[in-house]
Here is the input.
Amino acid sequence: MDELLLRKGMSRREFLDWIIKGGLLTTLAGLLFPALAYLWPVTRRGPVSGLIEVGRADDIGVWGSKKTVVGGTAFLILRTPNEYKAFSAVCTHLGCIVSWDDTKRQIACPCHAGFFDVEGRVISGPPPSPLPPHEVKVIDGKLFLRP
Ligand code: FES
Here is the structure.
């Protein structure tokens, strides 16, 4: 190996220096990559800070709905003829996940027959408070939710 290194004009010491430098660079990249990967999605999520892209607006028909999970929390997005609305999909009674009933145009909680109107207000049942609303916007045909 010495002969090969000498033929290429590199001493054993220079060769070991290159190996050590390469190892240090690899270690440094291994430390920086997870930190950058953690920060990168924040800028990639959407054009407006704090809004998370949750799909195409056209995927939800009028009086239709979509459930999505952002940051481990479930959200319910509704489409009325005039606008999109978003609520926490976690029932304010005991935390079951609510669903949109498009025939009755109500949000229903299956656990204890809790019902909410299209504004998230309690219609009937044990839920003590309305579903928390969340901002939802359509930008370039895509839905963005502020969790
Ligand atoms: S958890 Fe929704 S009504 Fe009880």
Notes: Residues 91, 93-94, 96, 109, 111-112, 114, 125-127 surround FE2/S2 (inorganic) cluster (CB under 6 Å). The first strand starts at residue 52 and ends at 56.
